[in-house]
Specification:
The complex is a heterotrimer, with 2 copies of chain A and 1 copy of chain C. In chain A, 37% of the residues lie in helices and 13% in strands. Chain A is α+β, with helices and mostly antiparallel strands. Chain A has 2 domains: 75 residues, Arc Repressor Mutant, subunit A (Orthogonal Bundle), CATH 1.10.10; 92 residues, Winged helix-like DNA-binding domain superfamily/Winged helix DNA-binding domain (Arc Repressor Mutant, subunit A, Orthogonal Bundle). Chain A is globular, with a radius of gyration of 22 Å. The relative contact order of chain A is 0.10. The chains are: A alpha+beta, C mainly alpha. Chains in contact: A-B, A-C, B-C. The interface between B and C is large, with 77 and 68 residues.
Amino acid sequence: MTQPSLEAILEAALLAAGEPLSMDQLRALFPDGEAPARATLEGALAKLETSLGGRGVMLKRVASGYRLQVPEEFAPWVSRLWEEKPTRYSRAVLETLAIIAYRQPITRGEIEEIRGVTLSSGIMRTLQERGWIRVAGHRDAPGRPAVFATTRDFLDHFNLRSLSELPSLMTLGEPGPEHPELDLEVPRQE
Amino acid sequence: MTQPSLEAILEAALLAAGEPLSMDQLRALFPDGEAPARATLEGALAKLETSLGGRGVMLKRVASGYRLQVPEEFAPWVSRLWEEKPTRYSRAVLETLAIIAYRQPITRGEIEEIRGVTLSSGIMRTLQERGWIRVAGHRDAPGRPAVFATTRDFLDHFNLRSLSELPSLMTLGEPGPEHPELDLEVPRQE
Amino acid sequence: MSRDDTPALLEPEVIARVQGEPYAELPRDLYIPPDALEVFLETFEGPLDLLLYLIRRQNLDILDIPIAEITRQYMGYVELMKDLRLELAAEYLVMAAMLAEIKSRMLLPRPPMADAEEAIDPRAELVRRLQEYEQFKAAGQDIEALPRVARDVFPAAAAASAMQSAERPPAVDLAELLAAFAEVLERAEMFSHHQIRREALSVRERMSETLMVLQQEQFLGLAVLLRPEEGRAGVVVTFLAILELLKAALVELVQSEPFAPLYLRSAEVMSGAEERQ
């Protein structure tokens, strides 16, 4: 039997894992001392990526490694596989997540200052339970408040390789987003 | 954007599901009334199957439908994904291995005599399954007991060219060899 | 922008603008069901969000907020929330107080000779906070729009369950093996009077090898086993191994007649043959 190609081995392993595999994990597929060099593996991954063009699967580099995933354009069909709709997150959750993502490490108090409201404990719990944020340490200030940071899972989940791939923050002074659906009349003052 | 091909849609759905999908489930990927006929889907599945030749994944018809799976020939690499953290061998296993290594060929009875305890069958099985010891023959004595010896894999694991490279007990303060004249190197065989 | 301007006031009666046209009254036919109003008010994430909404919906310049007007509108919503008995977070009242303070400071005549201090627009801090909040409000929406696992992209997985049983066997190093052997010898000497001697391992190895060859070949001429190409040392080692094997009754040496070639066969093959007879 001929030995399978390196691309096929990588494809098989990534599909068998069903989650991102780091370069180290990919090298560990081979017996000790027989692992191809990183550059060789990178070359094979590039070849694999090219060969998947036009198929129902693509190679994506995310924070924790390489992942084979079904591209967005197939979502209309693929999402019919599940009856349940994907979770929608409230604006409060998304804003808090955004503040942590762009301003990490950040304390709860600082998040509240930016949003102008007290942070409900449910929001932080939701984000921690999803594994998107974690306590990264404690600030050396009165009360030693915890500082929060985003996790690798957060980047993986949002299809990002690093924080630098986050969309850039709106420049100040730009017209902001509107609520067209909320365009109700201003109530009369008593 | 051009519409993805039917094969690509089926590939995407089967990979996103990660489990077998029946013909009915595959038809349910399409909006009501737009599902292709069974024959069309079967044709697309056949095309998909052909296009996967030489890759790390294959299409398989199973009882509950169609499944994309990693072909068996990738097991040597893929199975390493789930390797459990190596455990340690018990004292008994190590001692038995050491006795066989230094005193081969040796019978089970002789090992027991040296260790002063009965040898559980699990120990010999562990060492044989590991491929480090083998039955090298049988002694022409009552019961025709098997004699055990170490294997080439054993030498390979310890990075030894021959048994004579095993460390000598003298390093531990053992009296010197009785037959120094016998301590000859076995020449390397071609 | 001149700082001591009275805030650019809309006519007090104007409650809304539609395409730039000021409206002084709610159209009579506009009926907002109380439920909808409640949902509407609950949509605000806090006072900053409500203020931003008021500014943006009227296309006002965030850098030059007409404080008096905005304060009036803001208070209108706060009163509505109270009327509807919505859970009114204390932050809304704090903001109301802040707006009132800014408003009063802007109405005060600027004291002469205090230019440096007064150069700071009382609205500056509010503007900064509004802008910062707006940035993250937009960032939250950007994050929402990112392709997300299980909604837009799906991890691809293929079945490989049959391959999941591999278990990495323990590794052992040589020092461990030696230590185990030393320990066992020590113990053996405590329990018995046998002298355990170190024997030449190369001979032991050759014994094992010879046994293996005999298992496959069954009969082997002594001449085949003693290979001159291994040199004198090799031949001696093999010869000693054969003698040890004979002594341990693992092999038998056979000769069909005096001076005929010597053959070696394993005891196992031999007894197997006897059993069959």
